[in-house]
Amino acid sequence: MTTSIHPVVLCGGNGTRLWPLSRKALPKQFTPLIDGKSLLQMTLERLRSLNDVITCMASEDHRFLVQEAIDAAKVSGKQILEPVGRNTAAAMAAAALLADSDDLLLFAPADHHIPDAERFAETVRAGAAAALAGHIVTFGIVPTFPSTAYGYIETGAALTGAADAEAPAGNAVVRFVEKPTEDVAQSMLLKGGFLWNAGIFLVRAG
Fold first, then answer.
1. What is the pLDDT of residue 14?
2. Cβ neighbours of residue 147 under 8 Å, at least 6 residues apart?
3. How far apart, in Å, are the Cα atoms of 29 and each of 32, 59, 112, 120?
4. Are 85 and 12 in contact (CB under 8 A)?
């Protein structure tokens, strides 16, 4: 199945946890951190294999920084500017309203570092069938230690398809767990079936 996926990068946030390197005027997603590149530039480069037309949801205050990253990543980026930040849900809703109802939208934060871009793209494409079927697809990371800095996803049964169709890739979500205490995180890892919540979503616009 060939499906067009439209990446939407969420460029908000002030990156206060990385202060003083990251600050309000230059949040961490715009700061050159790895090989002279910002996390936003690397995010745009990673998404380029899915679609070289990428939408960036950003604050008006950061529009020039976003454009610098778009130019550096050599993508056909466009910006939707927020006069006032209303957090992730509002930005996602605005992007969906401006898209065609049949579009698949991939919402991704601007401040992730994902070294294996090819595997990332394969994973996103694998989620397309479930998104087209009406599921909200989220992506998890296999945890390597009981982190208290991330939210978690508890996974359930594998998705099933119609009798005449192949089942879409993925598992149902049982629940989302906010950033836990270390004891709770340790118990989830021992139980199994929990992933770190990457905060990346693939959905049908309409």
1. 56
2. 185, 196
3. 8, 13, 8, 19
4. yes
Q: pLDDT tens digit string along 67-78?
A: 999 999 999 989
pLDDT tens per residue across span 91-106: 788 888 888 888 999 9
Tokens 């009981």 -> residue: 146
Instruction: Judge contact between 139 and 123, C-beta under 8 A.
Output: yes
φ, ψ (nearest 5 deg) of residue 162: -65, 165
Contacts 24+ apart (CB under 8 A), 122-127: 124/5, 124/50, 124/202, 125/3, 125/5, 125/50, 126/169, 126/170, 127/168, 127/169, 127/170, 127/202
In contact, 105 and 6? CB cutoff 8 Å: yes
**pTM for the whole structure:** 0.87
With pLDDT > 90 as the criterion, what percentage of the chain qualifies? 64
CATH of domain 1-126: 3.90.550.10
Q: Where are the domains of the chain?
A: 1-126, 141-198
Kindly tell me the sign of the dihedral angle through the C-alpha atoms of 35, 37, 40, 42.
Answer: negative
Q: What angle do CA 100, 119, 142 make, to 5 degrees?
A: 100
